[in-house]
Amino acid sequence: MTSALIVIDVQNDFCSGGALEVPEGDQIVAPINLMIDDASIVILSQDWHPKNHASFAENHEGSTPFDVIEMPYGSQTLWPSHCVMGTRGAEFHGLLNTSRANAVIRKGSTSTIDSYSTFFENDRKTPTGLSGLLRECGVKTLTLVGLATDFCVAFSALDAIAQGFEVNMPLHACRAIDNQGSLADALTKLKLNGVRLV
After folding, report:
1. Contact indicator for 27, 146 with CB cutoff of 8 Å
2. Which pLDDT does position 35 carry in this prediction?
3. Helix (H) or strand (E) run with residue 45 in it
4. Which domains does the chain have, with CATH numbers?
5. DSSP letter string over 53-71?
6. For residues 35-45, average pLDDT
7. What is the structure's pLDDT at 44?
8. CA-CA distance, 41 to 142, in Å (whole number)?
9. Rounded to whole angstroms, how far apart are CA atoms 73 and 63?
10. Which residues are catalytic?
11. Closest by alpha carbon to 46, among 89, 95, 99, 3?
12. pLDDT (tens digit, 9 = 90+) per residue, 16-27?
Protein backbone atom coordinates (compact mmCIF):
# COMPACT_ATOMS: atom_id res chain seq x y z
CA MET A 1 0.00 0.00 0.00
CA THR A 2 1.69 3.18 -1.17
CA SER A 3 -1.08 5.79 -0.94
CA ALA A 4 -3.16 7.23 1.89
CA LEU A 5 -6.12 9.55 2.27
CA ILE A 6 -5.66 12.23 4.93
CA VAL A 7 -8.99 13.75 6.05
CA ILE A 8 -8.27 17.01 7.85
CA ASP A 9 -10.43 18.47 10.63
CA VAL A 10 -13.95 17.67 9.41
CA GLN A 11 -15.31 18.61 12.83
CA ASN A 12 -18.53 20.22 14.04
CA ASP A 13 -16.93 23.55 14.94
CA PHE A 14 -15.73 23.99 11.34
CA CYS A 15 -19.08 23.04 9.82
CA SER A 16 -22.50 24.72 9.70
CA GLY A 17 -23.33 26.46 12.98
CA GLY A 18 -19.88 25.79 14.44
CA ALA A 19 -17.73 28.20 16.40
CA LEU A 20 -15.35 28.68 13.46
CA GLU A 21 -17.66 27.83 10.58
CA VAL A 22 -16.00 27.33 7.20
CA PRO A 23 -18.42 28.37 4.44
CA GLU A 24 -19.97 25.28 2.80
CA GLY A 25 -17.92 23.03 5.08
CA ASP A 26 -20.73 20.48 5.31
CA GLN A 27 -20.74 20.04 1.52
CA ILE A 28 -17.47 18.12 1.49
CA VAL A 29 -18.63 15.28 3.74
CA ALA A 30 -20.37 13.29 0.99
CA PRO A 31 -17.48 13.42 -1.51
CA ILE A 32 -14.99 12.60 1.24
CA ASN A 33 -17.05 9.55 2.23
CA LEU A 34 -16.85 8.30 -1.36
CA MET A 35 -13.08 8.71 -1.27
CA ILE A 36 -12.90 6.90 2.07
CA ASP A 37 -14.72 3.93 0.52
CA ASP A 38 -11.97 3.60 -2.10
CA ALA A 39 -8.92 4.35 0.06
CA SER A 40 -6.41 1.74 1.25
CA ILE A 41 -5.30 3.78 4.26
CA VAL A 42 -7.41 6.49 5.92
CA ILE A 43 -6.00 8.92 8.49
CA LEU A 44 -8.25 11.46 10.21
CA SER A 45 -6.91 14.59 11.87
CA GLN A 46 -8.67 16.38 14.68
CA ASP A 47 -8.10 19.82 16.20
CA TRP A 48 -8.02 19.12 19.94
CA HIS A 49 -7.48 22.26 22.02
CA PRO A 50 -7.50 22.97 25.77
CA LYS A 51 -9.79 25.84 26.86
CA ASN A 52 -6.80 28.07 27.65
CA HIS A 53 -5.23 27.69 24.22
CA ALA A 54 -3.00 30.58 23.18
CA SER A 55 -4.63 30.84 19.73
CA PHE A 56 -8.04 31.76 21.20
CA ALA A 57 -8.79 35.49 21.05
CA GLU A 58 -10.73 35.34 24.32
CA ASN A 59 -7.51 34.34 26.11
CA HIS A 60 -5.84 37.66 25.13
CA GLU A 61 -7.36 40.72 26.77
CA GLY A 62 -8.50 43.32 24.24
CA SER A 63 -8.11 40.97 21.25
CA THR A 64 -10.73 39.89 18.73
CA PRO A 65 -10.81 36.92 16.34
CA PHE A 66 -8.53 37.26 13.29
CA ASP A 67 -6.17 39.66 15.07
CA VAL A 68 -2.54 38.63 14.55
CA ILE A 69 -0.10 38.53 17.45
CA GLU A 70 3.52 37.51 17.77
CA MET A 71 4.31 34.26 19.56
CA PRO A 72 7.77 32.80 20.30
CA TYR A 73 7.39 30.70 17.11
CA GLY A 74 6.20 33.59 14.89
CA SER A 75 2.96 35.28 13.83
CA GLN A 76 -0.25 33.74 15.15
CA THR A 77 -3.79 34.43 13.96
CA LEU A 78 -6.23 34.54 16.86
CA TRP A 79 -9.38 32.46 16.47
CA PRO A 80 -12.76 32.13 18.14
CA SER A 81 -12.55 29.36 20.74
CA HIS A 82 -13.10 26.11 18.85
CA CYS A 83 -12.59 22.34 18.95
CA VAL A 84 -12.10 22.32 22.71
CA MET A 85 -11.19 18.79 23.71
CA GLY A 86 -14.13 16.70 24.82
CA THR A 87 -16.82 19.05 23.48
CA ARG A 88 -19.35 18.46 20.73
CA GLY A 89 -17.59 21.07 18.60
CA ALA A 90 -14.44 18.95 18.58
CA GLU A 91 -16.28 15.82 17.43
CA PHE A 92 -16.17 14.72 13.81
CA HIS A 93 -19.15 15.72 11.65
CA GLY A 94 -21.91 13.23 12.34
CA LEU A 95 -22.16 12.06 8.72
CA LEU A 96 -18.42 11.55 8.20
CA ASN A 97 -17.58 7.86 7.83
CA THR A 98 -15.02 7.37 10.59
CA SER A 99 -15.40 3.58 10.72
CA ARG A 100 -12.61 2.95 8.20
CA ALA A 101 -10.03 5.21 9.85
CA ASN A 102 -6.70 3.50 10.44
CA ALA A 103 -5.62 6.26 12.82
CA VAL A 104 -6.63 9.63 14.25
CA ILE A 105 -4.00 12.35 14.63
CA ARG A 106 -4.93 14.94 17.27
CA LYS A 107 -3.18 18.30 17.09
CA GLY A 108 -3.09 21.62 18.91
CA SER A 109 -3.25 20.03 22.35
CA THR A 110 -0.34 22.03 23.77
CA SER A 111 -1.78 25.27 25.18
CA THR A 112 1.15 27.45 24.11
CA ILE A 113 1.51 26.30 20.46
CA ASP A 114 -1.08 26.21 17.70
CA SER A 115 -1.01 23.44 15.11
CA TYR A 116 -2.36 23.87 11.59
CA SER A 117 -0.41 21.08 9.94
CA THR A 118 -1.11 17.41 10.55
CA PHE A 119 2.68 16.88 10.49
CA PHE A 120 4.11 19.58 12.79
CA GLU A 121 2.91 22.08 15.34
CA ASN A 122 3.39 25.74 14.44
CA ASP A 123 6.80 25.89 16.09
CA ARG A 124 7.86 23.79 13.06
CA LYS A 125 9.80 21.49 15.40
CA THR A 126 7.27 19.38 17.28
CA PRO A 127 6.07 16.43 15.15
CA THR A 128 2.63 14.88 15.42
CA GLY A 129 3.92 11.43 14.52
CA LEU A 130 2.07 11.29 11.18
CA SER A 131 5.17 11.19 9.01
CA GLY A 132 6.60 8.21 10.84
CA LEU A 133 3.28 6.39 10.74
CA LEU A 134 2.99 6.85 6.98
CA ARG A 135 6.55 5.65 6.39
CA GLU A 136 5.96 2.57 8.54
CA CYS A 137 3.00 1.80 6.27
CA GLY A 138 5.09 2.27 3.12
CA VAL A 139 3.07 5.26 1.96
CA LYS A 140 4.56 7.47 -0.74
CA THR A 141 1.54 9.34 -2.15
CA LEU A 142 -1.02 11.32 -0.17
CA THR A 143 -4.44 12.69 -1.00
CA LEU A 144 -5.35 15.56 1.33
CA VAL A 145 -8.94 16.78 1.83
CA GLY A 146 -10.89 18.65 4.49
CA LEU A 147 -11.01 21.99 6.30
CA ALA A 148 -9.78 24.55 5.75
CA THR A 149 -8.08 24.73 2.35
CA ASP A 150 -6.07 27.84 3.18
CA PHE A 151 -4.94 26.85 6.66
CA CYS A 152 -4.78 23.28 7.96
CA VAL A 153 -5.00 21.55 4.57
CA ALA A 154 -2.46 23.87 2.93
CA PHE A 155 0.00 23.69 5.83
CA SER A 156 -0.31 19.90 5.84
CA ALA A 157 0.26 19.69 2.09
CA LEU A 158 3.39 21.85 2.22
CA ASP A 159 4.80 19.83 5.10
CA ALA A 160 4.03 16.59 3.26
CA ILE A 161 5.98 17.82 0.23
CA ALA A 162 8.88 18.82 2.48
CA GLN A 163 8.79 15.33 4.02
CA GLY A 164 9.19 13.77 0.57
CA PHE A 165 5.64 12.64 -0.16
CA GLU A 166 3.78 13.18 -3.42
CA VAL A 167 0.63 15.18 -2.68
CA ASN A 168 -2.73 15.42 -4.42
CA MET A 169 -5.34 17.88 -3.21
CA PRO A 170 -8.86 17.49 -4.70
CA LEU A 171 -10.35 20.95 -4.25
CA HIS A 172 -13.95 19.72 -4.52
CA ALA A 173 -13.39 17.99 -1.17
CA CYS A 174 -11.93 21.06 0.57
CA ARG A 175 -13.36 24.42 1.66
CA ALA A 176 -11.59 27.62 2.71
CA ILE A 177 -11.95 30.32 5.33
CA ASP A 178 -10.52 32.83 2.81
CA ASN A 179 -9.67 35.63 5.22
CA GLN A 180 -8.07 38.66 3.48
CA GLY A 181 -6.98 36.74 0.39
CA SER A 182 -5.67 33.71 2.27
CA LEU A 183 -7.10 31.24 -0.24
CA ALA A 184 -5.41 32.77 -3.30
CA ASP A 185 -2.13 33.02 -1.40
CA ALA A 186 -2.35 29.40 -0.30
CA LEU A 187 -3.17 28.07 -3.77
CA THR A 188 -0.25 29.96 -5.29
CA LYS A 189 2.16 28.59 -2.69
CA LEU A 190 0.82 25.06 -3.10
CA LYS A 191 1.32 25.13 -6.88
CA LEU A 192 4.84 26.54 -6.56
CA ASN A 193 5.79 23.76 -4.16
CA GLY A 194 4.55 20.92 -6.33
CA VAL A 195 1.21 20.07 -4.74
CA ARG A 196 -1.10 18.64 -7.42
CA LEU A 197 -4.39 20.56 -7.23
CA VAL A 198 -7.08 18.33 -8.68
Report:
1. no
2. 98
3. strand 42-47
4. 3-197 (3.40.50.850)
5. -TTBGGGSTT--TT-EEEE
6. 97
7. 98
8. 10
9. 19
10. 9, 107, 152
11. 89
12. 999 999 999 999
